[in-house]
Amino acid sequence: MKGKIVSILSGGIFGLLLATAPGAQTQGSPVLTTRAERLAWLSQADRETFLRNSRIYREIRPGERSLYYPGAQNSQGLEDWRRSVNPYFGVEALFFLPHHGIPADPEGQRQFALRTYNLALELNTLTGLEYYSHRRDRREVLFKRFFQIAAPGSRTAAPNIPVTVIPPVKTMLAFQEDNKFGETEYQVTFRYQEPVTAITLVNTENLYAAFIPICRAGELLFHVEIIPTREGILFYGICLTKGRGGIASVTESLQQRVFALYDWYSGKL
To answer: Which residue from 43, 115, 218, 239 has the fewest beta carbons nearer than 10 Å?
Structure first.
């Protein structure tokens, strides 16, 4: 089963990223686009809501496609995952984080992209991440433990090692213990295409909630993209799982994860 998962991951969702192809920029040209260019695909109503609130969120029902995905040229990978896991449901959200320290020159922008990439590598800092529970009207710990591991079955955190040159693709394993799904291992893949950093997590083990099976290995996907623009950072998150939906507690759990991942990353900048 894990071999099948790796096949889906390596040929699947990661092809859905991205902005311009490597080498598309000429020397001295800007690395970053404007926020308006990245929002061009949104409907007028969604764009107005986003510009007013700096975030939009929606549930994805079976058979529906993403409406907020920020301008990919190649979405074949996402289609591959959908076909392999169909039917599926989930949530997606898009956030804007103003940032006034983004350099104007192309080299400075590339260094800024390197910083945003290395911050995303710091998976171990997800341990203790909190979220707000509307049902309980209080903040709770989402991830009791979350860290990179060196090999399947390990429960020892591997060190976060920053890079000086961003690789196009970087894959690692991670262990997670959270308040909903218990202890689970994930395959985590980072993909970079200037200036976008994408992170995709797919479970490599079956998931249970209170000993009740929730989904099989490979059937839960978290995908986020960190997209620097000249005005700030767009943060896109989507979480999909196999099923036909209609379970409010599961949908709420997926939403909590997308919002918590945004809070985690925005808090590091």
So the answer is: 43
- pLDDT at residue 5 in the model: 45
**How many CB atoms lie under 10 A from the CB of residue 145?**
15
More confident residue, 100 or 203: 203
Residues 6+ apart with CB under 8 A from 216: 1, 206, 207, 242
The helix-helix angle for 106-121 and 248-268 (nearest 10°) equals 130
pTM as predicted:
0.84
The fold of 2-18+26-268 is Alpha-D-Glucose-1,6-Bisphosphate; Chain A, domain 4 (3.30.530)
Q: Is 156 exposed, middle or buried (0-12, 13-18, 19+ CB in 10 A)?
A: exposed
The answer to whether the beta carbons of residues 131 and 140 sit under 8 Å apart is yes
